[in-house]
Design goal:
This protein is mostly beta strands. The protein is built from three helices and 19 strands. It is elongated.
Length: 236
């Protein structure tokens, strides 16, 4: 199972200012899926020091929910199941779920075998070890949703307390969008006055406060041929 990590370095003055003001570190993680999806808070933590390493593995769950996909709504998983890429979670006509080995390579598939509309998505173990949702998509009756996890993480600090699994439409502070494609770890710095920095690295992009998060974290699906090439390149 692949393991990933991000190390955030801060000086003591920054850490003290963050803690004195009650800041939280928030994390989001990108996926590919239908354009009507929305990102949710993956993790929040006040457990940070001058050298903080966030570590996670590729362990996934799929879920369905009766909650509506609206900004600031917490998505509660009504039913969920452990799942691997290439598998399908099937939803029966009363909302029970089961996982089968047949699915789309590199994706998590969620098949609704009922006429009831749900919200659906995937969860991943966060740096605290908890499974928390990354995203929320509409799952229509007799519909199939494909979700592909991407190793892109958005970090930000903010004083507003927000629960994990909350749908967030806009960044509530300056953030760092971090691309881990092809690597297992990244390191960057944060300063309370200067913000995020990774020198001249192209794998980190600063995101302004109030930026829309959907275009950054809910990316369009790629064609099967492109997906096959990406899987082949990752396996090489």
């Amino acid at each position: 199972m692949a393991e990933y990590s991000i190390t955030v370095e801060m000086d003591q003055n920054t850490v003290k200012a963050l803690k004195d003001s009650g800041y939280y570190m928030y994390g989001f993680k990108a996926v590919r899926g239908q354009s009507s999806g929305m990102p949710t808070v993956w993790f929040s933590s006040q457990n940070f020091l001058t050298d903080t390493t966030l570590t996670w593995e590729e362990n996934y769950q799929a879920y369905i929910s009766n909650d509506q996909i609206e900004s600031n709504v917490v998505i509660h998983a009504s039913a969920k199941a452990d799942i691997d890429l290439g598998q399908t979670m099937n939803v029966d006509n009363v909302g029970n779920v089961s996982v089968t080995g047949e699915g789309t390579a590199g994706a998590i598939s969620i098949m609704n075998n009922s006429t009831t509309q749900y919200t659906c998505g995937m969860s991943q173990q966060n740096p605290s070890g908890d499974y928390t949702t990354l995203c929320a998509f509409p799952l229509y009756g007799n519909g199939l949703d494909l979700i592909v996890p991407i190793e892109t993480v958005l970090l930000m600090f903010a004083t507003k307390p927000v629960k994990t699994a909350t749908v967030i439409a806009q960044a509530f502070a300056q953030g760092a969008l971090i691309d881990l494609t092809g690597v297992s770890s990244r390191s960057l710095t944060f300063d309370i006055n200067k913000g995020w920095d990774a020198s001249s690295a192209t794998w980190m992009k600063k995101i302004a406060a109030n930026s829309p998060l959907q275009p950054l974290l809910i990316l369009p699906q790629v064609s099967e041929s492109k997906a096959a090439r990406r899987l082949a390149a990752a396996a090489a």
